[in-house]
Amino acid sequence: MSHAHQAPSEIPAHPITDRVREALAVTQRGCDELLPEAEWLRKLARSEATGQPLRIKLGLDPTAPDIHIGHTVVLNKMRQLQDLGHTVIFLIGDFTSLIGDPSGRNATRPPLTAEQVKANAETYYKQASLVLDQARTEIRYNSEWCDPLGARGMIQLASRYTVARMMERDDFTKRFKANTPISVHEFLYPLMQGYDSVALKSDLELGGTDQKFNLLMGRHLQTEYEQEPQCILTMPLLEGLDGVEKMSKSKNNYVGISEAPNSMFGKLMSISDELMWKYFTLLSFQPLSAIEQLKTECAGGRNPRDAKVQLAQEIVTRFHGASAAESALADFVNRSKGGVPDEVPEISLVLPEGVQTLAIGALLKQTNLVASTSEALRMVDQGGVRVDGATVSDRGLKLPAGTYVLQVGKRKFVRVSLGIK
């Protein structure tokens, strides 16, 4: 680690080759900010000249993981940097999470046990491995260097940063002005995160745009400890399927990476033509030149649906393999022609005694395809209801006993068996 004690201006100048420029373009693809760009370029040039891979850090909270494709934006970036030959450090914040979340918002959440942390970390890593190259990934836990620090070390660490600088952090400023309490130990959180970068001799740290203050803390502390400071790379948050809110489970606008291939494919096909290009930049591994070419073709009259199919196939292939992606496409095409998907939930209903038929509105409600009878009738008016592939136009339709495939909208299907008592 001969370069560990060099200040940024002293990073030796190595030639900026085409490969180095290409690596810079890969780094910047889809990113929000790369700070400072000139330093990162020098680090890339040094790595190219010496063959020494750069160390790239991502810190994770080991709370219960269930990754959706929004989370993979940062993982994809790490994979792209691994493919250039660099090392990724998957840092699990087990020490910081054992303190519990200090932000006051989740004060009732008890700190996780060491066992929970380990189990969550393993699940997370298993899911992340679908994106990362395991051969170039180090998994580390920050208790490794935080525990030995002890009280004396903590005090020395705290002396390296001022209260005034700490108060520049957005949420601290707001809480201070609003007279909302701030506990002293909350100041230790960003300090510990920054100290992780010192312990790992990190060259680059990745995070969401909301992490900028903590990422810059790493740079500051590395300089304090006479290390070459890390560069920081923030990635934008991905909007969900609705194109408005950021992707999240609670907003139900997400695509989970362990979701069934057909469902994943269908969801990706439902995004708007405009949002599709952002998904291409942040989620696809196709070169930007290929994406630009596709964009030009669509602007010139090619059906944007073709591009969306490419994107959906690439993502389903990444998490489920090529044959699953092929059959998901076939399933989607079949459905869009009014066909029925391969797997349809089955429900049995029995008509009350003496009743021979069931009205379409009641039937859709009882099979949970709609929330209410009025919604069912509205869907009929809009032409969004099919029975055995035929569109229903009559709100008063009554169905006798038998087996039917009901469809509401493009994606909701049920095979119902209607029996008589």
UniProtKB/TrEMBL annotation:
Enzyme category, top tier: ligase
Motif 'HIGH' region per UniProt: ranges: 62-71
Chain location of the short sequence motif 'KMSKS' region per the record: 246-250
Positions annotated to bind ATP: 249
Protein name (record): Tyrosine--tRNA ligase
Keyword Signal tagged: no
Native organism: Aquabacterium soli
Subcellular location: Cytoplasm
